[in-house]
Each structure stands twice: as structure tokens, then as C-alpha cells.
Amino acid sequence: SVNLNHKVWKQKKVLLDVKAETLKCFFGVFINTNGFVAVVEPPGEREYLGKMPAGFRMIAALLGDLDNSDGRGKVFFRQESSPDVLRRAHEHIKKAFPRDDSVEPPSVLIITWANMAAQGTSGRGDGLDAKRNTFQLVLASTDLSSYAILLYPRGGLQFLSTSVDGESKLLEAGFNEGLVKGWFRTTQGTYFRITTDEETSIKELTEKTNSGQRGVWVYEIGTSWLFAGITPGMVSSLPEEESTTEPPVTMLPTQTEDYQYTVPELTEPRYSPVQPSYPDSVQPRYTNPDPVQPVPPYSQPQHPQIVVVDEDEDLNVNVFAYNLETCAHNRHKCSAFADCRDYSNGYCCHCRPGFYGNGKDCVAEGKPQRMNGKVNGRVFVGNSPSPIELSNNDLHSYVVANDGRAYVAISNIPNSVGPSLQPLSSLGGVIGWAFALEQPGYQNGFSLIGGVFSRQAEVIFQPGNERLSIKQEFKGIDEHDHLVVSTELDGRLPAIPLGSSVQINPYKEIYQYDRNLITSSSNRDYTITSPDGTVQTRSYQWRQTITFQSCPHNEATGVAPSTQQLSVDQIFVMFDADNHLIRYAMSNKIGILPEQNPCFTGRHGCDINAMCRPGEGLQFTCECAAGFTGDGRYCHDIDECRENPRVCGSNAVCTNLPGTFRCECLNGFVFPMSTLIRGHDDHDHPHRGSHDCDAPERALCSYTGGSAYVCSCLPGYEGDGRVCRDIDECQQDRCHRDAFCSNTQGSYTCQCRPGFNGDGFQCSPSSSEREKTQCERQRESAQASGSGSGFFSFFRPRPAVGQYVPQCDEHGAYEPTQCHASIGQCWCVDANGQEIPNTRTGSGINQVVTPPPVGPTPRPDVHPVTPGTHLLFAQSGKIEHVPLDGYKMKKEEAKPLLHIPDRVVIAVAYDCVEKMVYWTDITGPAISKASLSGGDIIPVVTKELQSPEGIAIDHVSRLLFWTDSMRDTIEVSKLDGSQRRVLFDTDLVNPRPIVTNPAYGRLFWADWNRDGPKIEMSNMDGTERTVLVKDDLGLPNGLTFDPDNQQLCWADAGTRKVECMDPHRQLRRQIVDGIQYPFSLVSFGKNLYYTDWRREAVVAVDRLSEKEMEEFLPQKRSRLYGITTTPSQCPQAYNYCSNNGGCSHLCLPRLGGFTCRCPDAADGRCEERNL
């Protein structure tokens, strides 16, 4: 060990011996008593203390103005290669990165700052001189990567700050890049901070971890073909046993340990065989799993070039089969009147015969329905400057389901606003749509989506342009069988005098249906008759959006037509000033109305608690709803409590309700947790055996509200509940294609075939890949490389544009002829890749002068794109297109669309309205566009960009979105680049792909942060940001959204998989695995197309069969970047910003509405508002 004496020097230069295959390298480092290690000789401490980031490269273990002049403080360092030391270093690395196949380092450098005092406190005698800090830095290097291990004492640090120029400055830990020299100027590099400006972050160095051991912090700091950049350890959680036991060994000495190291010659560090590299002490206990969050959380590159981050080829990452999404675990989520059915990707609930709904909510056919809720909000009337406050006003509604007649009443309405609410019959009329009388082939709202949904409506009154917003949340069926709703009003109504009557004309409204979205709009006329007899006609425009969650797993389930017509007539509205009630009534029918059968016109005479069953011509019958009895013309309630007094059991009270009943336990009793529906297990038919359901191992006997019990088959069986047969799941392809399936009674098992690993639901080939050749290693290193090597290559660069990458043949040997396109030269090499003298051809090395971009038709053989759908993909300095014939790529017709020499095009997007191609260029950097039919390149955004890597378009709102992985931002602008606004600039590390869902006003993006990759979602106005996916991700490079199937899909170069998810239900499934290195992804119909860096190809995958279909290899082989499609017609979509929503500047859609926002560089005339 070497002791650095403060009286002699502040830092010591040390030569480190690092073995790299057969080459022996020496790197010089400077160890400083102020708690850091540098790669260059540091300037005076006035240049960096309290002034970080500094202008030189360093690792700060615990930076501050530290003092060892009294002889108690010492700094020790040594390079160590003893097996015990290397094993301990390797154990820390493995704990921090459990998924990486790291190897034991051949040697480590250990630096210990022992008993260091704060400068100026030694010998003061006031107690401050007794406070000492001891900490340690270990640098470990393998052939593949380098690591920094920081260790802090179990007992805590004794001081957290030092005095710098008379001011108290917190100690700091982190990695500082220093000044970075560019082509034209020198800029300050990244400062990757482990601590923050909060004192608690210094304390937490000893209390928390990122390596599974308190006070131990591990960072991957090297660059190679496998690793790049600073990556914090991944294990912040700690074993529970550490709360009671303390293992006896750690690398770090305690604060009070007396060091007796020998001091050899200072000019040549030696290895001390008798002393361990890590002095022993008591190891700290484990603690809570929250890590210290670095600020910023990831280092940033100094040049805007794409990084190659290859995952370990031997890494076998198995994604969980989502088998918790089965009826066995979720039957209780279905209605008591529904059956649960398992499908290949999950379960769905289906209402039983005699009931209708979405399976989660089911109601009896023909039974009247009720809705209860509260109304809140602020409403301005006329020109009044003061709003009328509505606070928990009761709303009640009643629907005669067999004729579609709906009644709505809202209570406690002030006279100042009541008359003006009369035109808003649809305020409660949504229940009319929900339970509208269905015409043949059509379904009302409740049949389709049940009782849980959100509704947002906007009303614009003419001629005064008053606006009112209506937000309603429908919360399903409560224990009283009532639909529950909350309503919020906000806006202004035109004034209607008290005593006036309002007549609303019949109207028709078209409802447009998507998987989880329903929209409608209409114009409505109404007539106001004032108390003095004056009559005037007015109108308003009505627009609404209904969002809900459907069950995506049963593709065979019948769905409504894409459009349905709601017809509303016999409309009655009245404000009762004496009782302060607003009343509405209307008749509702869904579908086209050619049928004259009384069941479809509502003129049948059946009891209101009966269902009308149509017959031939005008014939029909009436049938009492479940829970009622009679001839259908007259139905009366069945009193289940009287007919079966013990239906609820001896310790419960039965209460009869219209069409059903309710059981309530006596004091001191509770229902069993397994009871999923009303009724009591202890004395019911299932336990008494007085039922005809199948055996309990195959069927379930349960109470319902409308009859004594129902029988249903258990998961794994099918039938009517009275006879249940085993389902042979092996006939349904439940297991992975590379697995054996074994059927059992009520279940099945999956087991991967020999040569494959996994759980049977997901199988991947066992690793048998040969060791990479020298050429392959050099090629991959060049693809992922940047400047620097060894311990201090800890800032992730991007490969230089035009960097030479060796060419290898199919066996991994060097191609005899090597070429470097950027300098226009080729040469011959021997078997070791060494250039053979006098074989270089081509022009000399000239300074590269970037020519001006060339337009989309630069040569006679480059023509505008023919009509039809094409794939567009970026390849270095050009964009190519491949026509599609159905889903098949017409490879022979592939041609360049656009040449942009000396540019690296990353992402491409297509505007289907103006037929323009947009792309990002990281060498400009810039965002540009050009017409698909030819013409000049048009700059869109050229300023305040660093590395724009993802781009997306909302063709409805005419908006442009992009990610910048160096600015760590997500931004939006108009399609011409104007009115630019930053949506997000926090919690982003490496944002890359971004896509839009215009119909929902949603935005999706992926961040391939190695420390925590994630896929996020928000509204386009920046609200409701949420993480969709964070588990089982590696490098999510590609992202696409399929609006037809509402599927978000991504390609991951880390897990080597393509996966999809319904973002509404957040159900995830794997499409393909074992792919190479995907970069970008696009969806078209049933296919997914992705670009692959390793295959240098466009690959087509059938999403339904989950198989690769074909690949396209461009004539010129090099990396492919972004990919998109050019559909011949725009996908049908609507959002509130299709005409800019009346906003002065940016109109940004969101789910159910829109927001008017100002650009970041707004003038004083901009107005922001939410609608």
C-alpha cells in the first residue's frame, strides 16, 4: 500500500498495469487527497472545489476540501490481483448486475481515504477535529468492461460538508467528463452526479445501495461491444435477514480502525501480499429498497450520433406468461349473471342468456333500469360575471327498457340557472342511449360497454357562442342494481327567462365506434316560448366522446357496426320552479328503423318488467324479466325471501328487492371471503346438495339475485354447469411452439423441448453460439465504440459518422478487401486484418465538405413514388421505398426516394394528408420534410436540437412530435415547425421512438435507459403521464401503434423480442423472440415490419400467426434506421383539434377533450385554456 502524505503532495500520479489480451497498457491516474481520482493532472483546488462540474475528467468518491496534515488522515492505494480480493470484487459486481454475465477481473485498483478531516478543523479542540470520514474506491476492469465500486462506512459519515471560501459546501460524489473538444468549439461535458444538492443524499450514501449491500455502490463505467456509458447497479433492494443479522465482512474499514500499512517506494507502487485489498470490518445491515437517484440519472454523449448497445448474446431473458389473466384468478370480476371464459391471451366475461351487458355488468332483459348520481360544477348564465355553484345535486333517472323511454330529474336547481338548463336534455339522456330500444342487428350502449365508462361532451350554443363542458363518470352497477354516475358542469349557458318553456325537435345522432372509444356529434334545434308569448329558435352543436375498456381476448365476439344511429323523439323538458327540479324525458332507439314489429317500435303493451320477443310479421310475445312472474302483459315481483325463507342462511337477513333480493349478515357474522355474489354459503343449495350442478371438482354452484342458484363450469371445463367436460387446452395452442403440451383434467402443462429454455409458455434456444472471431469483435467494438478505453472511458460517446467498420465474412474472417466509404478507399488485408502495403486504392484522404442536400428526384433513375402503400426506411444518407402488394414486399421494385449525402437519417414519419415525408437528422441536427411526389427538401426545425431520434405526426391535429436524446426532451410543434413547445424535460434519459394515437389524443414513447428502460404514455397536451411498461425491457428501440386494433407494439434489442400491448387494459403478449438487433418498427394491417441492424434488413412479421414472413435486403448493405408506411388513405380518426379547436395557438388533444397551449416563445396574445 502507498500512503499519500498531504504535506508532500495533494495528488500522486500512478501508473496502472491493465492487461488487454496480449497487449500490455499503462494508464496514468492522479489520486488526490480531496477525495477524487483524475486522468489528467488537476489544476489548483480553487478551480473545482464548490465549482463542479470541473474542466477535467475525474471520479469523485467524496469530493470536498479534505485534510490529512495532522498525520491521522491517510490515503492508501494499491493494485491487487490476489484471488480473494478479485473474488470479492466480482461478487459486488454480480450483486449489482445480476443479469450480466460478468467475469472475474484480472486485477483491481484500491484507493482508501482513511480518517480524513475537513480542512481547517484539525487541532481546533472544539470537537470538529474529531470528526473523520473514511471511504473507498475500487476500480475493476475486465476484457469487456470496467467498474467503479464505491464504499462508505456502516456507521455513517461524520461530516457532510467542508468550508470553501468561507461558505459551507456539501460533499459530492459522481463522474465528471470535463471539457469536450468539438470541431468548432469546446463545451462542458456531462457531470453524472450520484449525490444531489440535498444533504440527505450524502447521508444516504451509507444507508442505501444500488448493489444489494448497504453503503456499497457499483457503476459500470467502461465502453466495449457489450457495455457503453455509466450504468448504475440494478439492485436497490436488500435481503430481509439483514434486519436481524450482520454479516462479518465488508471491504470498507470502520471509522475508528487503526491502519498499519507499510510504505514502500513512492515511485513504484507494489502489491502487498499480506494485506487484503479491502480491510475487514462489520458489514452493514440491509435496508429499504429505495435507491439514491442520481441527478441527472445518466451520462450524456458529447456528439449527437447513434449509440450501439448490444446485449449479451448468451443472456436468456424469459418473459412471464401472463397466466394470472385467467378465470381462475378473476372470476369474481365478472357479473353474478355472467360466465367467465378463458382465451389464449386472457379471460372475458359473457352475460348469460336472459341478461345483457359487457360481462362485467349484466342486467336482466326487459327489466327497467335506474341511474343515480350527483351533479357538481360552476355555470355562468348569460353575461353574468358570477357563476352558479352546483354542489352534490341529486340526479335520478329511470328507463323503461322494453320501449326505450327515459326519464331524468335533477333536484335543488336554483331558479337563476334552471330555465337555462332546459335545452340540455342529453345531460341525463346518456342513459337513454345506454338502454335504447335495439333494432335488429344493433346494440345499445350498455350491451356493448356495460356500466363503467367516461363521457365528455362539449356544447356550443348559437348565436352567442357560449360553451359548456360536461364530464361524467359512470361507475357501474351498485348493490341496489342502480347505475351510478357523477357529473361535472363547467362553462356558460345562454340566458332563458324564468317561466319560459322549451321545445326540442326530434333528432338523429351518429355514434362512431372504435374498440375502446365512441364519438358522436350533432346539431340540435330548440324553440323558446317566453312568458309574454315571444317565440325564438336557437341551436347548439353537440360533440361527445365516450371511453371505456373492452375485452380484447375474444376476437370472435360480435361487435357493433362501426357506426350506429340513435334516434331520439318525444322529447319533453321542464323546469319546476316550485320544487326546483329540472325534468327531461325522451324515447330512444338505436339502429335503422325499418321494422314495424311492435317490439322494435315500442308499441307492444308488455309490462314494464317484461321483455318483448318479436315473431313473424307483427307477431310478438311478452316474457317477464328474471325475478318477476306473470304472463308478460302483467308481471309481479317474486319475493325470494318469502318463497325460500332460508335462502340467506340462519345468520343472515333476507331483503326482497324488485327482481332480486339481498342478504345481510347479523351482527357478529360476516360472509366468507370466497363468496363472490349475494347469498350465504353455510346454508345454500351448494352445501346442502339440493342442486343438479355437476360434481364440485368440475362445476360451481352459486346464488344469483334472480333465482335460487346457477351452475357454471370451473376453469378448464366447458358445458352448461350441469354437465361439464374437460377442455383439451393442447388443441388451443396455449403453449409455446417449441414446447410440449400435456392435457390434464381441468388444466394442462407446458414444457420446453430439448435444446430450449423457458417455462413452456415462452421458450428460447439454449445458447450454443460459437466464440466470436477477432474480426467480429473488432466490428462490434467499432459499432459501439467511442473515444477512450480502460477505467476512464466512462462517458458514452456515439460512433463517429463515417467511422471505419471492418467487414467480416459469414464465418467471421476478415474479408480480403476492406473499404472505408467515407474516404472512398479500399485495401487488402491479411488473415489478421492487417493492411497489406501498397494495396490501397481510391482517392487520398480529403477533408469532407458536406454538399447541399439533394431533392427527392436527383437522378433519372429515381422517380416519385407510385400510388399505393409503400414502406419507407432510412439507410445512412438516403431514404428508400419498397412497394407493398397486400402485405408482401415487392423487393424487385425497391428504389431510393431521397438522397441526403453525409447525413445520418434516424427516424421517418409520413403525413397522409399532404403526402409529405418527415425525418430527423442527427448530423445537422435538423428535422426536414419533402413531398412524396418529388421536390425540394424543406427545413422544419433547425435550431435548439442536439440529437433528434424519434418523430411522430398527428395527421388530424396537424401536429409534429419528436424526442431529443441529448436534450432529454419531448417536444411538439405545428407541422411547419412553428409554435414549438417542450412537453417533457424530466425523467428522461435516452428517449427514442415516439408514436401517436390521434383518435384518443394519446402519445407513446420509449426510453432505453439501461438503468431503467420504460415505455410511457400521456395525453398530447402533456397531462396524465404514466409508465405503461417497465418490466422485462432491455433496449426498446422501435415503437408503433395500430389504430385499427388499438395495439401498441415494440421491438426490443435487449430482450430480442417483439411484443404488443392493449394500452387501455395493459394486457401484454409476445409476438416473436430470438430476433437480432431491431431498431425501428411499423404496423400495417396484420403485419409488423422492423429494421434490423445486424441483419441489415427489413423483416416482416405476421402478428396473428406470430411468425416471421419474409425479409428484404437492400442492394447496399449497411445499417437501416427508421421505418414507416405511406398508406394511400388516412386512417379514419377524429379529435377535438381537427380545426385547431378555436385555440389562438397550439391545440393539443387529450382523452375526451383538448387544451389550448402557448408555445414556449409565445407573444402576449396567446390564451391558454382547457376544454
Automatic annotation (TrEMBL):
One of its GO terms (molecular function) is calcium ion binding. Residues 323-363, 595-636, 637-675, 726-762 form the EGF-like domain. Its main location: secreted. Residues 772-791 are annotated as: Disordered. Disulfide bonds join C819-C826. Residues 772-854 form the Thyroglobulin type-1 domain. Keywords: Basement membrane, Calcium, Cell adhesion, Disulfide bond, EGF-like domain, Extracellular matrix, Glycoprotein, Repeat, Secreted, Signal. One of its GO terms (cellular component) is plasma membrane. InterPro entries: 6-blade_b-propeller_TolB-like, cEGF, Cueball_EGF_LRP_Nidogen, EGF, EGF-like_Ca-bd_dom, EGF-type_Asp/Asn_hydroxyl_site, EGF_Ca-bd_CS, G2_nidogen/fibulin_G2F. Residues 367-600 form the Nidogen G2 beta-barrel domain. GO terms for biological process: canonical Wnt signaling pathway; cell-matrix adhesion; epithelial cell differentiation. It holds the Pfam family Ldl_recept_b. LDL-receptor class B repeats lie at residues 915-957, 958-1000, 1001-1045. Residues 61-224 form the NIDO domain. PROSITE patterns: ASX_HYDROXYL, EGF_2, EGF_3, EGF_CA, LDLRB, NIDO, NIDOGEN_G2, THYROGLOBULIN_1_1. The keyword Cell membrane does not apply. PANTHER family: NIDOGEN-1, VITELLOGENIN RECEPTOR-LIKE PROTEIN-RELATED-RELATED. This is Nidogen 1. It comes from Lates calcarifer (Barramundi).
